[in-house]
Amino acid sequence: MSAIEIRGLNLYYGKFQALINVNMAVEAKRITALIGSSGCGKSTLLRCINRMNDLIEDVRTEGSVKVDGAEIYKVRPDFVKLRKKVGMVFQRPNPFPLSVYENVAFGPRIHHMARGSELDGIVEASLKDVLLWDDLKDKLKRSALGLSLEQRQRLCIARLIAVRSEVLLMDEPCSALDPMATLKIEELMQRLKKDYTIIIVTHNMQQAARVSEDTGFMLLGELVEFGRTEEIFTKPRDKRTEDYITGRFG
Amino acid sequence: MLKKIKEFIIERLIFLSGIASIVFVLLIFIFLLKEGISIFKTVGLFDFLSGRFWYPISDPPKLGILPLIMGSLLVTLGAVVIAVPLGIASAFYIAEVASPRVRDALKSCVEVLSAIPSVVLGFIGMVTLVPFVKALFKIPTGLTAFSGSIMLAFMALPTIISISEDAINAVPRQYKEGAIALGATHWQTLYRVIIHGAMPGVIAASMLGIGRVIGETMAVMMITGNAAVIPTTFLQPVRTLTATIAAEMGETVRGSEHYYALFAIGIVLFVISFLINVTADLFLHKDKR
Ligand SMILES: Nc1ncnc2c1ncn2[C@@H]1O[C@H](COP(=O)(O)OP(=O)(O)OP(=O)(O)O)[C@@H](O)[C@H]1O
Ligand SMILES: [Mg+2]
Q: What residue owns the CA closest to ligand 1's atom 28?
């Protein structure tokens, strides 16, 4: 069974159709990349998986999305549970205006997962997982807004680890970072892959080629092609994919 | 050429208007200082601030403004206790909870409230609130600090609500999205994240509201009973600094001690308001950084 299974998904912003009959099956514990030119619907598709599109007014969705086999569109899901399981990392790192500690503890607190020393343990383990612990263990009380961009993005990932999310949706997580920081976040993703199902939206085709096992290519709201990354990049089946990839690489 | 001259003149005019406002403020301040300081030739600063009796027309006059300061503080404190929690809660409701239609309606109401002249509020308070307080607590008069606090709370509310609401709306969307994407409910997002982001602005809003309350004159004069005694409870008449100046300036002889003392009260008020505004400003700027 796939971790995420999308069938016949259509999404409309008012009259504008942003997703057209998308079908996609994402495997667990792998990194899946979504590529495509600006405005083709990558973020929209990603935000369907944790139903963040519900925050936008006048959005209508048809079709089915299953997370771990459970339908999240036909019946009204438990949003709290869904979003705990399917975490999201945003394009601009968005730690809360709280201390480093409180940022990581936020999720466990709202989900009543732990308190006291147990919570300290979760915070420590989560920060260790994103390799921030050594840098920040003496600065847990400092505001998270004082961290570097890369550290902030790591902190945002630690927030999800702390609630034991199973799926990480990353919407251009490196676009605000410099090349060095980007590589480090990519390394982190490789480390996390064994425990998490990761879907990453990226503008950067090299990044998609470097980090992902599977890739989906989107164009004007359609998922044109979906398959193993090396196949998409070396022998795409669809002409449009080939044009996009050679256009970008060549 | 003609264009250049025109530009030159316009520039100068704008410059002059800018300077004028500064000059006027300075002149007012100097005048206040000059008139007010004279009192300290006869009454010491300490005696003036801590004197327990304000009998300006007895012979010799007793010019201690402690009862007036206490009156002002008490009325203000009461107003703050009522208006700050209510104002902040309303702001959160308007900014985060209310549906667009309710939000528009409420915002108009707040605007109307701020447009009511204070003398009208005072008048309404005099005929409704004062008898109500008298009956409720079974006290000889309803003209009390408590009644004044309630009326002043109404005056501070529009300021607190509208500035707090701006601060809440200015909290970056990403914070909210981040919290919701983590599975936080609307309420959790509100009190764990948004409130932290909005805090500096909300504090500034409260300070400005307090500033408005401390400087208010008309309504307190009509409602608080104007007895210059050091208050011991909320349910007794008090007299504020502002009401004292307004009530007595008309009947004092220019150049008398009493006259100078009223100006000195003006200085005290000025200092208090100034401090409050500076504090508010500090928080507002902290917000921007
Ligand atoms: N809230 C919205 N209301 C109306 N239209 C929207 C909204 N959000 C996105 N769209 C439209 O839907 C389409 C897909 O947007 P989306 O943000 O998913 O694209 P994207 O592939 O993530 O682009 P980018 O690479 O620039 O991030 C675009 O044409 C966009 O204009
Ligand atoms: Mg996008």
A: A39
Looking at the domain assignment, is residue A73 inside a domain?
A: yes
- Cα of B282 to nearest chain A Cα, Å: 19
- For residue B179, what is the domain's CATH number? 1.10.3720.10
Rounded to 5°, the CA angle B113-B115-B118 comes to 85
Range B10-26 average pLDDT: 93
Closest C-alpha to ligand 1, atom 30 = A39
Which of B178, B183, B193 is closest, CB to CB, to A84? B183
Q: Looking at the predicted structure, is the pLDDT value of residue A213 above 70?
A: yes
Overall residue count recorded for chain A in this entry: 250
Residue B232 counted as domain residue: yes
Give the residue among A89, A104, A39, A56 at the shortest CA–CA distance from A198: A89
Closest CA to B142 of B127, B164, B159, B123: B127
Is there a domain that residue B172 lies in? yes
Chain-chain contact of B182 with A79 (C-beta, under 8 angstroms)? no
* CATH code, domain with A165: 3.40.50.300
Quick check: is B265 in a domain? yes
Number of domains, chain A: 1
Residue A250 has pLDDT above 80, yes or no: no
Pick A57 or A1 by higher pLDDT: A57
Give the tens place of pLDDT for each residue, A41-66.
999 999 999 999 888 888 999 999 99
| Any atom of ligand 1 within 6 Å of the Cβ of A117 | no
Domain range for A103:
4-245
CA nearest B208: which of B83, B82, B75?
B83
- A50 to each of A54, A145, B21, B117, B233, how far by Cα in Å? 9, 26, 56, 51, 57
Q: For B236-256, write each residue's pLDDT tens digit.
A: 999 999 999 999 988 888 888
**Alpha-carbon gap, residue A230 to B218, rounded angstroms:** 79
Tell me which range, A73-77, B88-92, B231-235, is most confidently predicted by mean pLDDT.
Answer: B88-92
Average pLDDT, chain A: 89
The whole domain housing B95 covers 45-284
Which residues in chain A have Cβ-Cβ distances shorter than 8 Å to B196? 96-98
> Quick check: is B100 in a domain?
yes
For the CA of A58, the nearest atom of ligand 1: 3
Q: Name the residue with higher pLDDT: B53 or A246.
A: B53
